[in-house]
Specification:
21% of the residues lie in helices and 24% in strands. By secondary structure, it is of the alpha+beta class. The protein has a 7-stranded antiparallel sheet, covered by helices on one side.
Length: 225
Amino acid sequence: MTAAAQQPSQPQVKVNVLNVCSPSAEEKEAIDSALARIPKQPLFSPDFEIDRGRTSLQERPGFLQPGESGQDSSESATARWVRIRREFSFQAMFSTDSKNMMETLVFRVRDPKDLMQVSIEDSASSVTSPATMLSTNTPVSRIKLERFGKSSVVLARCPAPEAGPAPDQSAYAPLFQSGSGIVANYRSQLRAAHIVPDELARVDLFSPSKPVPKPAAKKSAPKNK
């Protein structure tokens, strides 16, 4: 007798497909509820952090994970970024490369039960300067909810495909408007329009293409006759 070898069972793979252009009514309500819970006048603790740096774009930087809609530029090998963190459990991050500028506001829930994190993102072409972008109320392009034990909820502005009209997102206009208002408010609270351009200028000091400035020659004191 020959017994057929028992084939090992293959592990089941579960794939969640997110409809970022037209979330369901339940997901729309979840986004609306999360945005409404964000304080308009936050009470910051005295602790804060400001980080800055330059990151290779060969692999997607970890700090860009809260907002994933930005497109990496194939013509640029690096992106400059500034991250501002304030205690009341959220952080703001601004990054720029040769083609895109991205601003991401991330709120982390201290004691998560259902909602763990809310990220709100806007982006613009880098034909303008970071100071100009941060002084303008750029419309939000992406809102993402990270939930405990559930799939994420994402709402993103979707352009028209190559063949056919753009999807009708008029039902989500209030959510985009609410998100844009939150970003504008916290940009002001963090003084990002003043901090970010100065910090990016400091990143440029380490650019390999710029020569290291020579120390100024010391002038000898005149001798008394």
